[in-house]
Amino acid sequence: MAWFLYLIECRDGSIYTGITTDVAARYAAHAAGLGARYTRSHPPARLLAAVEYPDRSAAARAEYRTKLLSPAAKREFAASLNGAAG
Question: pTM, whole model, 2 decimals?
Answer without folding.
Answer: 0.91
